[in-house]
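Escalation from tier 1.

The customer reports that the assembly of two entities below gives different structure tokens on two consecutive runs. Tier 1 could not reproduce it. I'm attaching the input and our single run for tier 2 to review.
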Amino acid sequence: MTQLTPPRTGTDADIETLSTVADSLEASTRYDVLPERGAAEATVGAALDAEWEEEPGLWGFITTVNHKRIGRRYLVTAGFFFMLAGINALVMRTQLAGPNNSIISPEIYDQLFTMHGTMMIFFFATPFNSGFGNFFLPLMIGTRDMAFPRLNALSYWIFLFSGIFMFTGEAMRVAPDAGWFAYVPLSNEYSPQLNLDFYSLGLLFLAVSSTVGAMNLVITFLKMRAPGMSLNRVPPFVWGIVTQSFMLVFALPPLDLANLMLFLDRRLGMRFFDTAKGGDAVLWQHLFWLFGHPDVYIIVLPAMGIVSSIIPTFSRRSILAYPYVVLATVATGIISFGVWVHHMFAVGLSDVSLTFFSAATLTISVPAGIQMFAWLGTMWRGRVVLSPAMLYAMSFIITFVIGGVTGVMFAVVPFDQQVTDSYFVVAHFHYVLFGGAVMPMLGGLFYWWPKLTGRMTSHKGGVISAVLIFVGFQVTFFPMHIQGLLGMPRRIYTYPAGYGWGTYNLIETIGAYVLAFGFLWTLFVFAQSLLSGPVAPDDPWGGNTLEWATGSPPKAYNFPVIPTVHSLNPLWDGRTLQSMVDHRHDDQRTMTEVHRTLRTSELDGRIERVMSMPGETVQPLLVAAFLTMTVCFLLADIMLAAAVAVGLMGLVIAWWMWNRPEIDEPAP
Amino acid sequence: MRRCRRLLAGVAATLSVEALVAGCDRAPSTLSPVGPKSDFTTWAWWGLFAVAAFVCCIIIGLTVLAGVVRRRSTKVKTGEGRTFVMVCGVILPGIVFAGVFALSVGGLVATSEPSHKPAMTVDVVGHQWWWEFHYQGTSAVTANELHVPVGTSVELRLRTHDVIHSFWIPQVMPKMDLLPRRINKTWLSVDHPGTYRGECAEYCGVQHAHMDFALVAQSQSDFRSWLQRQEQDAATPTTTSEQQGMQFFTSASCSTCHTIRGTSAHGQLGPDLTHVGSRPSLAAGLIPNDVGHMSGWIANSQAVKPGNLMPPQHLSPSDLHDVVAYLQSLK
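Tier 1 run:
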């Protein structure tokens, strides 16, 4: 294999030179193993391998706390839920292919669209981002695992069990059926069956996972960045994940509260939302959207972060106006808490409040514009390589801008009142969420596949996948704009002939099948790569961030030597990689005894301590199992058993707290 | 084989009908407005659409061109590009957004109050899954059919009997929700006589898809005579069949849910049937109002609109015939 040496000398000018040299997609022109990592592994690799080796077999599978295994599991599980929720949508599109169809009953249709929304939002989009975050955040910031590895395992197990819990409801044909937004009173006294109990309990259950997962990512980001990685050298993807995690911590409580109150109303006869008894039905809407609107950005921000990773690599150019991109990310996170009422413009609130939220809705478009032009500028200043990941990033820009401009239209209150709850909105948010999240995620999969699996994907297969998904998406969702303007409301299981809606619906259904075929094709490309794809080198794309300095896939300890980060593009500055060679005999950077990594300061990334990490344990699985039992008993209304399960969970948590890793040792 | 052929014929008929009406103006299109409120939103739409299309063309063009042009380039430009991002990402959008905000506030001012004081008020009550209209100051009550005089502002007081619904007439007015224990006031005005489709736009349960109503805009004189007729009590049955039908209706379970003014039927749960014979459709716009459909509806409405709140009625054929004859006579 030929080994082309990219210049690595360190100045900005050299990065420009590098840009023009290292632009080939051929894996064979690159190192199998980066020489710097090779030197470090040769020195300490064997000792670390022995220390970090995991138990094989089933026991190792259920006790692992390794962030990479957990991250991959998140991706696989959330991807599976995506497939199920997508099949729900395909059944709906089949039903809507022509007017007055009766392929499925209205009851089933209502469960399908509720589950489609709920599963896509809660059990696919957010956890899929967590999967990327789990796997890549520690790699990108140069550490060996998450701050709380056991908590990480816990959040995965809870996510898995709560997803199974929700789909059990669908399999029993008592899935939630009041829409993903579950407005009271429809979801309350007008829905006496188990359906909405699956909703309130399932979401509370999942919220435990999301909350602990988010806190874990925030702490990891704050305390475990490699030395030298001050806040101005943190990759935009990490900023996306961290902003998302902060948002989750603040956005979930209103939703949890609402779901708890709904459960109490439904099961214990309380009256939080019963207007006749002094409660308030609109309260639910405020609480729900106070979570619901930030949630859009909870889904989109990490995905934008993926785009901010792909575009510099495949434009051979550092991201343009980095400080603005970061500020835009964080500003979006903050402003998103002040726009929720634009989901409620038709509720009949006061004009003053409508005016305020109209302005806020416009404000939140500004940061998105900043990022948009930063990406475009990066592409125009660099040299674009049309890899599958880059094609997905470009599909994202095209799709997201269409979703963005229709989003701005909703700021015009009377226009919003005209098109809200029509297919126009369905079109808008699929452009935002599919364009803004699913396309970047697929791009991220193609980009990081070598790191995730150690295999390369077929270039041609990836290009076909990007084209199929782009075309399928546009054919499915663009006509919905027109259909909404023609007066077709959302969430109807059938529609009459003669209004000109049928043609558009038929086109959309055809598009949906093209889209489904695109996903099957993509799955095939990934499967083919796993079975017979070429073995991936460390850094197949000439990437700029630290994850490319690890093996493909990374070793259990990620970095044999924790590097010193010298710039925003550590792999392009030459010095960062060299630091792995320079420090390979430095015990503080290699930490070959027990599971250890570095703790650094929040702002500047200065070394504070070497800290110990916990190893494999079954505790997280046990806690999740007892929590699952609690939720199931609550659903079945067996309160005594639920209390026993809570008690058992408490015992495991006590054991967990007792069994902490040894206390930090001060840095020498 | 015959079934198969019939199916094919049905499909062909559907497709051709669809193709014929695809461009026809029967659609309740927000883009063919007939009232001042929808006039505004239509006008706003075309303005916003023009700006949006312009922005999209630029960004999509820049993206695609970057892929084509910058792929072959060997020269990489330097510089941080902060000014570019600031100008294109903040200042230019800021100017556009200021305009959009002005449009929003202007629209609120223009649509929140009518230019003339409303001449009449209608109470709108949403039910799972039909609409009830009370004409204030009169005894007229209708279901799924709202008549208004052309060119006059009509005040609407929206409330719901059960869950949240949303009142929408795409060609006439944007949506307004119906909330439990709250009255939302809004107004509408129609410029041209005609019948316009109204819909429930907030998901309200299993038959949300079939909760339509007809807005009938009439000349002042037509409206007045219609209202006068609606105010009257039900017509007295004339034929024997109709008389037996009335007898059956008032003595059987029908009257526990339905009212027919001028008889002993005073039920409150279902639609007022005092002038049911004059309505063009049944079941919130789902089926035409004729003898066949009405008989089918009464015998087993669950087959027509699954999940609706009217239970199947097990009537003998002659009773059913009489009841339908009676109800059809209530013009």
